[in-house]
Amino acid sequence: MARFRRRTCIILLLFILFICSIMMALKTLRPDRAGFGDPFGLGLLPELQQRTVLSENKHNSLNKVQGDTVTHVSNLHSIAVNTMKASMPPVNKLEEELSSPNYNFHIFYYSWFGNPQFDGKYIHWNHPLLPHWDPKIANNYPKGRHNPPEDIGANFYPELGSYSSKDPSVIEAHMKQMRSASTGVIVLSWYPPGMADENGEPTDDLVPVILDYAHKYNLKVTFHIEPYKDRDDRSMYHNVKYIIDKYGGHPAFYRHKTSTGRFLPLFYVYDSYVTLPEIWANLLTISGSQTIRNTPYDALFIALLVEERHKHDIHRSGFDGMYTYFATNGFSYGSSHHNWASLKAFCDSNNLMFIPSVGPGYIDTSIRPWNNHNTRNRVNGKYYETAFSAALLVRPEIISITSFNEWHEGTQIEKAVPKRTGQVVYLDYKPHKPNVYLELTQKWSEKYRKEQEQWLM
Q1: Is the dihedral of CA 408, 414, 419, 421 positive or negative?
Q2: Residue 189 gets which letter from DSSP?
């Protein structure tokens, strides 16, 4: 009996030692940084991690504006800067986590969205249904406005919901997404102070906050000058002067290195073709009556090319280059991929920059219900990759992306999520994740960098 007890004790001791060794081995597999509230493996789920950070940022932002129905633009800048300083991780940590910015990838960005929490009402999400110019056709389609937050003026639905462009947590999330996509320059839609598009409100006061957050993520900002009322050579001179004087000293303000070694601001000019070449020449040629050349406000001015004939007008006007903007292959001469080679050749022979614009697809039937024929299906990302491939074939100095968040026209690469309401079923990015177009952009940014090294050899 004594021998049996001794044997049992030895077996029990060996079993306890075995369990202890297993526990020690498991402990060595657990990350050192893991602690309470940091579940093992959370770092392998960047989607979940990013949503957690975003939720915390939104909570902090809500605490700052508690008790206010509307956040006024006059004190937004200080709120945003304080929020940014409080939550800003070390720069080295940001650099390690995100792809390096590619300053030859420019992405169109819109800050015109609003909601009741920050703006006292919905702005742009409640976009009206635009009537067809032919009354006979217009009568066949619905009229009215969208009714957010469930019904918005878009065919896709943002992961961030019907957000306000003034929300610091939204600006932060946007900068992080654009940086994760390895873009480098934000092309900010811009109207002069006090002006806006017909469905929006002035947004110039938001520029300092966008610059600050862009700088945090090592991004640069340039301006997409919209066709405001009475835009001509004189008003453009004053507005370029205003932009450079007010924002040109910010470290996030973009300057492009020219072939002569100069660093100049770069401005995209939307719908440039509606102004006569002779008017532009007053501003953009050395002999012009309002010339901006060889002044402290000289810059690179990039015109929108829609029709083939515009290339001659652009050259005659004194512009420094052209871009194509529309993400609809075949919609216009400029947006048709097969025309990019001849446009690049024309630009090369006339010392102009050619900046093709690529996009993930196009659908605007939420605001133009009669425009089905211009829809371009995303084909699970294949349309986007085809556009990038066509752009790389012409070896451009810069590629522009339409867009980060033009939700009305369905060209956004911002994260979108599946959503179904009583009346609407929104499109989504399935079977892929909400960040698939950010990942594709990052992939082609790296591919562009590698191919550009070969071009320059």
Answers
A1: negative
A2: E
Phi, then psi, of 30 in degrees rounded to 5: -80, 135
SS3 call for 194? coil
Q: In angstroms, rounded to a whole number, what is the distance separating the alpha carbons of residues 201 and 204?
A: 10
CB 187, CB 222: distance < 8 Å: yes
Mean per-residue pLDDT pooled into runs of 10, the chain (457 residues): 58 65 43 31 32 37 37 43 46 70 98 98 98 94 96 98 98 98 98 97 98 98 97 98 98 95 97 98 97 98 98 98 97 98 98 98 97 97 98 98 98 98 93 98 97 84
The DSSP line for 293-322 is TTSTT--EEEEE--STTHHHHHHHHT-SEE
DSSP annotation of 347 reads H
- What's the pLDDT score for residue 98? 87
Contact 299, 264 (CB under 8 A): yes
Give residues with Cβ within 8 angstroms of 219, minimum separation 6.
101, 175, 178, 179, 183, 184, 185, 186, 252
**Rounded-to-integer distance, Cα 200 and Cα 88, Å:** 31
Closest CA to 195 of 186, 204, 187: 204
